[in-house]
Write a structure and sequence with these properties.
By secondary structure, the protein is α/β, with parallel strands linked by helices. The protein has helices spanning about 1-10, 15-35, 40-45, 65-135, 135-140, 145-165, 165-185, 190-195, 200-210, 210-235, 235-240, 245-300, 305-350, 410-415, 440, 460-465, 470-480, 485-490, 510-520, 540-550, 585-595, 595-609; strands spanning about 370-380, 380-395, 395-400, 425-430, 430, 445-450, 525-530, 555-560, 570-575, 580-585. Helix 3 (about 40-45) packs antiparallel against helix 13, helix 4 runs antiparallel to helix 6 (about 145-165) and helix 9 (about 200-210) packs antiparallel against helix 12. The longest helix has about 70 residues, at about 65-135.
């Protein structure tokens, strides 16, 4: 129940929907029940003697004697207007009652649909916003497909199953009570007899749906795995084909698909079995009622049950199983909704590890230096950085070099607080970045990665990403600095050309220059460049390197370099090995030291030859 009430909290303000829903549902139930109750006067009118219809009326029954009141007024109509006039009146009443019943049912369903959409909107917004706020480490440990499954599929399951419970807890019980009230009013003995079989039906249905929640959890986990496999297959389609792994991937996906189908099939069998079981018990009850009612009419002369009243009773009782069946179906669906809700709530409850400190301040500029003081960082048990002390002065270009796995990318990720050091501190202008708001810190930085991360949108929107107020002139100026303007004009629609999923319509060098233009447009004082040219061919590398040189003018730049020839003009070169700074200086100073940097230079020179 705790999970259910948490899920229902996303419907707030629920009273905006609940009050109209309750009012319209009450009227819908009243008029729907009245439609069936009017069968008695209708049949009484049809079966009345055309010649001798006048009957002397006794005292008017009390308000609580529903059937007596009905019979009194029908006989009054027969006395005053005759069978034909009474029939016209009863039929008109049935038409008006049916119209009002369906009008209020439509309004209640419309209100429920608005509540369902409102709940889905809030639920999906909450889970997506929380996912966007999570630290990068979370995404390294989670399958992207499973996250997508929770946001897309699981939220949809919650939408229908949880909001439909409002019908279970209000509309269907209210309908059931209304029908039972009429049944008791017609014949208490017959109704007590008929109710004996309902607990048996409820017990059988409860047994059928008992395992649905466990199966629902398993099905949603399997579906998340399938989406993950699909995402990996689409992202790595080139590698899959290159390594002739198509059949392997097909079999991997098919295995999970078969498992998911098996679970869904088993769940469907249980859900679908509840409906025919309840229907069978309903028909069995109606048959039993016909026998017992016939016994009262034909055998017991003392029975006050008239044929037209008995037919009305059967019609009413046949409708009792409809809300009972709806409740059994809804309870089976609720298990799926609660299971899906628990998965999504787990994602909402995931807390970001990197948040602003309560006393965090905003910084608006960069004036002096970035300083690392005894910084240590580990991935679980593996140490990546150990007691790193570095100073990056304002306006200088600082390059990080060293063997793979030395900690270069980790060191750079610490500056915008993508990750946090275990010990030590990073200072910007003397302020510890953990005491600075994350947004203002990252606003000082432009980042260009080795992988060109672009979006399925126009070139203009990719360059102006996050800056919705950018003008065409500003975007063009940024593109010129990035050596991208000319090739952009050669595309089909210029800056309005869509570049496809992840920029697949562009070459590697073109994608990288778009990323550089995006960084230029932000005009940050600090640039972080993580092997921005390592994946490019020689011609593209030169164009991108020229763009980077333009980008770094009058800025503080921290560069991770794969090709050491590109950073020989850096003001400071820092050599990292096994998470420690082993050398530091200019290119010429490090060459003269004749240590690791000289060794790396010689190796690249030898390989180039």
């Amino acid at each position: 129940m705790k999970t259910y009430f948490r899920l229902l909290s996303f419907a707030k303000p629920i009273e905006k929907f609940a009050i109209p829903y309750i009012i319209t549902t009450i009227f819908s139930v009243i008029f729907s029940t009245l439609n069936l109750a009017l069968l008695a006067p209708l049949l009484q009118t049809l079966f009345s003697d055309k010649q001798a219809h006048f009957v002397r009326l006794g005292p008017r029954p009390s308000f609580y004697d529903i059937m007596g009141t009905f019979n009194y007024y029908v006989q009054y109509m027969l006395n005053k207007y005759g069978p034909w006039g009474t029939l016209q009146f009863v039929c008109a009443t049935i038409i008006v009652s049916a119209l009002l019943a369906n009008l209020f049912r439509y309004l209640s369903q419309r209100t429920m649909e608005n509540l369902r959409v409102h709940t889905l909107l809030n639920f999906r917004r909450s889970v997506f916003n929380n996912v966007m706020n999570l630290h990068l480490g979370f995404f390294n440990n989670e399958r992207k497909g499973d996250i997508i499954s929770k946001i897309a599929s699981d939220v949809q399951v919650v939408q229908f199953s949880v909001t439909s419970t409002l019908q279970v807890v209000f509309k269907e019980p209210l309908t059931l009570i209304a029908y039972m009230a009429w049944l008791f009013a017609i014949s208490p003995n017959l109704t007590f007899y008929s109710l004996l079989i309902i607990p048996v039906s409820a017990f059988v249905i409860a047994k059928i749906v008992k395992r649905l929640k466990a199966q629902a959890i398993s099905s949603q986990q399997t579906y998340g795995n399938m989406i993950s496999y699909l995402d990996e297959a689409l992202s790595g389609i080139k590698i899959i084909k290159a390594f002739n792994a198509t059949e392997f991937i097909k079999n991997k996906f098919d295995k999970e698909n078969n498992r998911y189908s098996s679970i869904i099939r088993s769940m469907a069998r249980r859900q679908q079995l509840a409906s025919p079981v309840s229907e069978f018990f309903g028909i069995a009850m109606v048959a039993g009622i016909v026998l017992y009612g016939g016994h009262l009419i034909f055998i017991k002369d003392t029975s006050s049950l008239k044929p037209e009243t008995f037919i009305t009773y059967i019609a009413l009782f046949s409708q009792v199983m409809r809300p009972a069946k709806a409740m059994s179906d809804s309870f089976s669906n609720i298990h799926s909704g609660i299971a899906a809700g628990e998965r999504v709530l787990a994602l909402i409850d995931e807390k970001p590890l990197i948040v602003d400190a309560p006393d965090a301040v905003t910084i608006s500029g960069f004036n002096d230096s970035i300083e690392f003081k005894n910084v240590t960082f580990s991935y679980q048990e593996r140490a990546v950085l150990s007691d790193v002390d570095i100073i990056v002065p304002k306006g200088k270009t600082v390059a990080l070099v060293g063997p793979s796995g030395g900690g270069k990318s980790t060191l750079m990720d610490l500056i915008p607080r993508f990750i946090e050091p275990q010990t030590g501190g990073i200072l910007i202008d003397g302020k510890n970045i953990q005491k600075v708001t994350v947004d203002s810190l990252r606003a000082l930085m432009g980042i260009v990665n080795q992988e060109s991360i672009l979006f399925n949108d126009t070139i203009f929107n990719n360059i102006a990403f996050g800056k919705t107020d950018s003008t065409m002139e500003e975007v063009e100026a940024a593109a010129r600095i990035a050596n991208a303007h000319n090739f952009i004009l050669e595309t089909e629609n210029g800056y309005e050309t869509n570049i496809g999923d992840r920029g697949t319509k562009l070459s590697g060098g073109q994608r990288q220059r778009i990323c550089i233009a995006r960084a230029v447009l932000n005009n940050p004082p600090i640039m972080l460049l993580d092997e921005a040219t390592s994946a490019l061919d020689t011609e593209s590398e030169k164009l991108v390197q020229d763009a980077l040189n333009n980008l770094m003018k009058n800025r503080t730049s921290l560069i991770i370099a794969h090709r050491l020839s590109t950073i020989q003009n850096a003001d400071i070169i820092i050599v990292l090995e096994n998470g420690k700074v082993v050398e530091q200086g200019t290119h010429h100073e490090l060459i003269e030291n004749n240590k690791l940097y000289r060794k790396l230079i010689d190796m690249q020179t030898f390989n180039a030859e």
